[in-house]
Amino acid sequence: MDRSTDHRSQPGARPGPSRRTDAERNRTRILDTARTVLEQDPDASMQSIAKLTGIGQGTLYRNFPNREALVLAVHRRDVQDLIDAAPRLAAGSPPLVALRRWLDELGSYGRIKHGLAGALNSTTRERLATEGYDPVVDAMGTLLRACQQAGEVRADVTADDLLLLVGFLWRISPDENFETRSSHLLDLVMDALRRPAT
Predict the structure, then answer these.
(1) pLDDT digits over 171-186, tens only?
(2) Considering the entire predicted model, what is its pTM?
(3) Which parts of this chain does the entry mark as a DNA-binding region (predicted)?
């Protein structure tokens, strides 16, 4: 092949599909590893995250120029996963079951948030809380309204009310008892939401 016709060899040529796929795969691996590492050690360094991911520091810094950018990306992906879970659960389960399963996912997010909180300064934490609030409430509201339309949940509860009711998820210590305690408290919340028998 004439090299003049091979765009892969031209300076400034756009990366091909395989290179983009590799870059996306690296980014996903970095976020997965960072999420686990920062949950366990909020002070973990970029170097340790790169090493555990199995990539060079150059690759890490090309994706995330500094530590705060990496932690922000981890938080934002977790929030997006939570938002995306709502329509998926609604499509595959009865309304009340979908809501409860989504609240379980919210609980998992709350546990992870405990670990990551120490890796962010207070200003960044407030910014994340603000930007994530409306999308999370909207996702919760979609599931809650489906339950209300099915006549399974009392009509006087809003998504904002429900978010306040499950606020304990941010306060339970993320220890070995977290899942048991959060599950029990979520059962109580679900019982309180049910439409009174007539």
Answers:
(1) 887 778 888 999 999 9
(2) 0.77
(3) 45-64
